[in-house]
Every structure is written in C-alpha cells, then in structure tokens.
Amino acid sequence: MGGVLEGVRVLDFGRYIAGPYCATLLAEFGAEVIRVEKREGSEDRFVAPVGEGGEGALFLQVNRNKKCVTLDPMKPEGQEVMRRLVATADVVVANLPPQTLRAMKLDYESLKAIKPDIILTTATAFGGPGPWSDRVGFDGVGQVMSGSVYMTGTGDPPYRAAVNWVDFGTALHCAFGTLAALIERGKSGRGQIVEGALLATALSFTNATLIEQAVINVNRVPTGNLGQTAAPADIYRTRDGWVLCQVTGHPLFKRWARLMGEEEVWLNDARFADDISRGNNGAIISERMARWCAGRTTQEAVDALGQAMIPTGPVLSPQQALDHPHIRAAGFLQDVDYPGLPKPAPVTRAAVRLSETPGDITSRPPTLGEHTDRVLAELGYDAAAIAALRQSGVI
C-alpha cells in the first residue's frame, strides 16, 4: 500500500467507531489492516444501511483500506487461526470490554504470550480503575457524563450532539497512542497496552468548562447557541437560512464593530471591554448582529463577514455540505465505489495532511470475508484446510 506505516500489520477486532476508525487512520497512512469479523457479519457493518447487502454508511466511512477475514475465535480451531494471525501482527485493535477481551484471549497477557512485543490498542466506555470499569456504553454516555449535554440546547430537555464526537475523538486518541507505542517499540523493543476511554475523551474536550466550574464555581446554565464567554457568538437567521458568527478576542471585536459601522458605540462601553464582559452581555450584542443578518442572504452575510476576517460559516444541510464549493474544491471527500451501491460513497479522507508522506484512500471497504482465503493461505493453510475450517463454521 505504501505510506509512512508501510510494514506495520494491524489486526482490527474493533466494532462501531472507536476501534475501527483508529485502525482506518493507521491504514490510510500505510499500515496493513486486517478486519476480523463475525462469520455472519459484525453488527457495525449494518448501521444506516445504504447498499444492497445491507452495508451501512458508518461501515463505509471507517473501513476503507482494510482486508476482511471472518472468524469464530471462540472455537478451538478459531483460536489457532487467531494465534497464527497474532504472531504476524504488530498491533491488535479491540475496543471491547475487558471481560470480552479475556474470553476471546485478546487480553494483553494472552497476546504477549504469542508475540512478546505486541501492542494492544483498546478502548472502553468508562476506563479504569473505578467502579464502572466493566460497564459498557456508547458515545452518548461520554456526552452526558462530561457536562456537554447539560450545556447544550436550552436545558429542557437537554440535547446530545447528533454526531458521535466522543467515539471519533477516542479513535483519534487511540491512533495517536498507537503511533507513540510504535515509536517506543522501535527504541526499546517493548510492546505495551494503549488504552482509550469514551468518558476520558469527553472529559478532555469539556475540560475548560470543568476547570472554570472548579476554580470559580460559576454554575453556568445552557443558553442555546448564544456564547457565554465572548460575543457576538451565536447562530443568526438570514433572509434565506442561518449563519454562525463567532467573535473571540478584542482584535476580532474591533473588526466586528467596524463592520457594523458603530465603533464608537461598541468600543467605548465598559460592558463590552473584554471577552468575558461581552459574554455576560452577549444578548445585547447578539440582538445587533441579528438585525444585521436579517437584512442579508446567507451568502451575503458570510461573504461580508469573511472579507472582514471574522469567523463565520453557513448552517448547511447534509446535501448542502456535499455541494458546497469549498468542500468540493478542498478534496476532503473522495468518491469510493462499493458493490451494490447505487452510486459512489463520498468518504472523507484523513483530516490531516502530511506534505511528504500523505495518507491515501487506496481501496474500498472490504466485503464480508473478502480476504479470508488469501490471509489464511499466507498463514500456511492450504485449500483443503481452509475448506475444512469453512465447513466446520470457523470461518
């Protein structure tokens, strides 16, 4: 495949997002990633189905550049296949509960007995140690326990984000940790455990809010889209849609006041002297910004704000995001064909670019068990042995 991680073999036992997307990032930069899946297809293959075979949008997003083998690791013959796979691997990715790892013999001690320098990258819902270490959970658990959901919307009811930012953030942390572990292994020859947790990720993203609460006991409450520590910071209605404007820092506020044509009004009033004061009086500033936006189209508003070097963006529907000229021109999305899709899937490339060793989407996500025979042949199984494993329900 090529890339900065060429020569690194990763076994992906992950499910849903945190594990699979971590492995996908490694694959995009050259690692050989083998997804190990249930014989009937793992449950995360079928979330938000878009293809004839039921493959889902989430699967297409987080499984490009991978090979796929099917395997039942709970059978003795499956354990032998897995032992041979692990012996060839550098990294095992498995965002599974500790008790499941032990049952599948994917815990670190079992892996290390096969490959002493193996790196195990895992992620759990709650991390540990702690009384909830063995509990399971999804993205939303991290959102609700970090303070994020409490502060979102207007509070009755509280709202979680529609996108799985905790899962994807955990995948990013795990990919970073895996790279650090590979660097350490290159120095010392030692493997180790890389452990992420959904709750830890969520807390790391909301940490500034938690610090503010702990230090000055501010007891903030949700205020919808209205920012609380700077202004104007809100989503405003235009003549044909909505636009976001975020002003933080006095230089930006001066530019905003100049754009309003009212520098004397806004720059000489003690209520607006600094960010926190502007946040405390944000409703006054937002009312002025709302009047400015109401008389303009979304395009007119974002163009004027953009030319004034004020952070802004239109509120786009999913279709509008696909059609936006900057998103198209920047090449963030790559059309990827997949068997049974009525049209190619626009898959995001890794959201970081390396000038000398860039990542690349070189192959579509695998069909179920697409590479089982090839991978097993590389492990020393002949055609008869592979057929026997299939007949006995191991693969």
UniProtKB/TrEMBL annotation:
Alphabetized SUPFAM superfamilies for the sequence: CoA-transferase family III (CaiB/BaiF)
Keyword list, A-Z: Transferase
Superkingdom, taxonomy of origin: Bacteria
InterPro entries, A to Z: CoA-transferase_III, CoA-Trfase_fam_III, CoA-Trfase_III_dom3_sf, CoA-Trfase_III_dom_1_sf
Protein name as annotated: Crotonobetainyl-CoA:carnitine CoA-transferase CaiB-like acyl-CoA transferase
Species name: Bradyrhizobium ottawaense
